[in-house]
Amino acid sequence: MSFFNKIIVAIVRLMPKAVVGIFSRKYIAGETLEEAVLQVKNLNSKGIYATMDVLGESIKNKREAIDAKEKCLEVLEIINKNNLKANLSLKPTQMGLNLDENFAYEQIEQIVQKAKEINNFIRLDMEDSPYTDKTFNLLKRLRTKYDNVGVVVQAKLKRTYDDVNELNKIGTNYRLCKGIYIEPVAISYRDKQMIRDHYLKILEAMLKNGNYVGIATHDEYLINESYKIIKQMNVPKDKFEFQMLLGIREDLRDKINADGYKIRIYVPFGKDWYAYSIRRLQENPQIAGHIFRNIFSLR
Questions:
Q1: The domain containing residue 122 runs over which residues?
Q2: pLDDT, tens digit, for every residue of 127-179?
Q3: What are residue 218's phi and psi, to 5 degrees?
Q4: Does 80 reside within a domain?
Q5: 125 given a catalytic annotation
Q6: Which helix (H) or strand (E) element contains residue 40?
Q7: Which CATH number belongs to the domain containing residue 89 in this structure?
Q8: CB pairs under 8 A, 24+ apart, for 290-294?
Q9: How far apart are CA 194 and CA 196, in angstroms?
Q10: Is the residue at 172 inside a domain?
Q11: Does residue 249 carry a catalytic annotation?
């Protein structure tokens, strides 16, 4: 991250929430499910798939977790009712993983079961490193009964290649991303190219084993290298897709779509948009610079 972008991220974090809301509109579908549905319909009209996400994580009590579960079940109902080309992503801490692992499992199982009934799919998002093993444990328990659930892994973590070799044994469906959380240097890569190299090494291991992979990145280098790997390995198109965040690198999104590859866009919505917006800035500080210029009309 450049010094300029670090300063911009720091400034944006100090801005009033209402101001941050101005620039977050492009990257968040809205506060309501209805707004998210409109966004997904727009994407679907272009031949683009979606994964919907009710924003919120690290709830404080079981009542909040139950409320979050009910919202997820409602999203699945709406996806089915509207014949949307979309699935659902959720954060395990939103379901109470930070409170009680068995309780979180029961919550998530209800969602996965509902998705199974309507031929849909649930993605367990990966959070910061204290929850890595707990999230994998949830996945393994669910996979003994359901085949419509997958997980996210992060190339930034040094452990991930070994994790993938283990998870490949249960036919895991992956989303592979770089990772956005600030982790201790002892367990994570910091160098940009080292993260890229690890990402591609992991991707090859996934595809070689025949797993389904969501190749989640806005990094043009990684997209081009992924193209090469797919062609070299002759990977069938039904074994992978590309994934991106709403509102980011739409030029790359459209290119991937035009190239004939399946692409899925992460469509977050809900009242808990502020923390998500700040995390996106930390991951993509160049966005902060762009926003700063727009707000203050700098050229």
A1: 29-269
A2: 999 999 999 999 999 999 999 999 999 999 999 999 999 999 999 999 999 99
A3: -110, 5
A4: yes
A5: yes
A6: helix 33-44
A7: 3.20.20.220
A8: 291/12, 291/23, 292/8, 292/11, 292/12, 294/23
A9: 5
A10: yes
A11: no
Which residue from 23, 12, 28 is spatially nearest to 294, judged by alpha carbons? 23
The answer to the question of residue 278 being in a domain is no
Active-site hit among 53, 123, 125, 196: 125
At residue 285, the 3 state secondary structure works out as helix
What tokens appear for 113 in the block?
């079961």
Residues in a beta bridge with 154: 177
Give SS3 for 266: strand
Q: Does 185 reside within a domain?
A: yes
Q: Give the C-alpha separation, 26 to 265, whole Å.
A: 13
66 has a pLDDT exceeding 90:
yes
DSSP, collapsed to helix, strand or coil, labels residue 211 as: coil
3-class DSSP assignment, residue 41: helix
pTM here is 0.90
Residue in 53, 123, 163, 175 annotated catalytic: 175
Structure tokens at 240: 């992978």
Provide the 3-class DSSP secondary structure of residue 291. Answer: helix
Count of domains for the chain? 1
| Cα gap 244→228, rounded to integer Å | 19
Mean pLDDT of the region 261-279: 86
